[in-house]
Structures are given as C-alpha cells and as structure tokens.
Amino acid sequence: MESAVVSNQAAEFDYLFKLLMIGDSGVGKSSLLLSFTSDSFEDLSPTIGVDFKVKYVTLGGKKLKLAIWDTAGQERFRTLTSSYYRGAQGIIMVYDVTRRETFTNLCDVWAKEIELYSTNQDCIKMLVGNKVDKESDRVVTKKEGINFARESGCLFIECSAKTRVNVQQCFEELVLKILDTPSLLAEGSKGVKKNNIFKEKPPQADASTSGCC
C-alpha cells in the first residue's frame, strides 16, 4: 500500500533523497515516520512488505523531496525488502529502548544486511533508540547506543514517536549529513531529473533458488 504526504512545494525541489527505515517488528518505525510526516501518533499494526511516504522539507537552504521507505521487520518479508536498499542515501536503524533483543539484532542482523545490500558506500546511517517515553521500562542505556553508533560509524539519537521528542531532529540531522556528502548530493540531483525512485521493482527471484515459503 502506498501513501504520500504532499504539499504545494511538490512542483519543484533541488534534491531527491531516498531514506530507508529498518529494524525489528514493533520498534516503532511506522509510528516515527507518521509522526514526522503528519505530526501525529498512532499505534500501528506491523507493516506488510514495504510502505513509503513523501515529505517536502527545506533544509540548508535547499528544497528537498524525501522518499522515506518503511520496511517490514518480520523475517518472512526479509527477501522482499532487500531490493529497497538500492540507491538509499540514508538508512535509519531503529530499536526499542525497552526491548534488548531489538538492539542486539541491529548488530546481528540489520547491520549485516546493510553491508550486503546497500549500494552507496557513503550512505549515511542513523541509529535511533525509540520509546524513551517509557523510561521506567528502559533496558538499553543511552551510553550503549552511543558506543554502538560510534563503532558502526552512525549518527545517534534517542526519541519518542509518541511524544514527538527528537523525531524532527532525527530526520533533519540525517538529511543535513547527506547534504554535506558530495557523492550523495550528486545522486540526489540525478534523482530530480529521473524522479523514478518509486518505479523500482524488486529483482526477480532466480527460478532455481526460489521455493515455497
């Protein structure tokens, strides 16, 4: 299912950036995206496959079109989402500060996926600890998040999709870093000419390797 947030700025923009949100199911990826694009919060059911929203912003004096892809966290959708890494200038890795396994899986599962599928070696990564509104249930400390981000070469922020704390900053910091990276800027400029980010198709599975379920 595709949904988009559009504005009067849709007519023209300087750069088109593709951002990808990854992480375990239930960490709040869709809620973060909704909070950023429509200023609201909802407890959403798990994403099936992939969804995306569009947000027009002006940052660093540039008009930007952000195509933000929200991927399913469940294992059964993993092969479906691999193609969506292609061409992403920014990747947002989300975990839930109240569920340690969502944090360890970023290292054990998701970081390896980025290595495997990301086509941009300069791609900017942002580590996001979500649900800080549940401070009394926290099991992953901020220091652990900072250390992991430092080791992985990621930006880092903690936020709450529910209270909207740091949600805007999360996306803005990521985009400003992309704007500071010449190779990604060049790609974003190309994207404006093509504007074909939404026409990508997942690669066809090889007949010899595809099987049922």
Automatic annotation (TrEMBL):
Q: Which UniProt keywords apply?
A: Cell membrane, GTP-binding, Lipoprotein, Membrane, Nucleotide-binding, Prenylation, Protein transport, Transport
Listed under GO biological process in this entry are: protein transport
Annotated membrane topology: Lipid-anchor
What coarse category fits the chief subcellular location reported for this protein?
membrane
Q: Which GO terms describe its cellular component?
A: plasma membrane
Q: Which CDD domains match?
A: Rab18
Keyword Nucleus in the entry? The reply is no
PROSITE patterns reported for this sequence: RAB, RAS, RHO
| GO molecular function terms listed in the Swiss-Prot or TrEMBL record | GTP binding; GTPase activity
Spell out the subcellular localization from the entry: Cell membrane
ATP-binding as a keyword?
no
Which NCBIfam families does the entry link to?
A: small_GTP (TIGR00231)
Role, per record: Intracellular vesicle trafficking and protein transport.
Q: Tell me its family.
A: Belongs to the small GTPase superfamily. Rab family.
Name listed for the protein in its UniProt record: Uncharacterized protein
Native species: Malus domestica
